[in-house]
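Suppose a colleague, Dr. K., hands you the sequence of a protein chain of 195 amino acids and asks what its three-dimensional shape might be. Before reaching for any lab equipment, you can write down a predicted structure in token form. Begin with the sequence itself:
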Amino acid sequence: MNTPTHMLIGAAVFARPVVPSTLVAAMLGGLAPDVPMFALVLWSTRLAGIPQHEVFGSLFYSDSWQAVFAVDHSFFVWGLLLALGQWRRYLILTAFAGAGFLHAATDFVTHHDDARRQFWPVSDWVFRSPVSYWDPNYYGGIIGVVELGLVLFATAFLCWRHRKLWQRVVIVILAAVIVVPVIVTGGFHGLHGMG
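The predicted structure, expressed as tokens, is then:
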């Protein structure tokens, strides 16, 4: 799924209105697994001058990049952080790690060609889901509609639970990143490359 969707879903599940900082922690947890990818892509295209088609055509699938993605999407890494947060009763860590784990879990079922080694360091096995959040050859169009529905539901739910203006502004901005391109283009094709 797209990164803003991960952030909204993670917040909907793990943010607690009585502790406003858990909203930010959950959103950052939903973002965190994709930060290394964004950094690698920006470094490659902006600083190293590598053409985008080469970045997404070969570098993205290289052993070195996939090694990074194995760590940032590892069920074991996120699971240990979540267990630590629960054990120590740190709501902020629980919200962050829970959203990160949920991000990895939803990527597990929505990535085909670009799947990660999510059982690192125990195994290098890769599950190639029969569905892809972006590839029409693997039901990407259907998943796009489901994703849009999840974004709208999570946005409404979060705005209902979190009443402060700054919270609602952040929530709506994240939702707009997904919803506006769909409205402007009439389709989901503009969303690929964010998850």
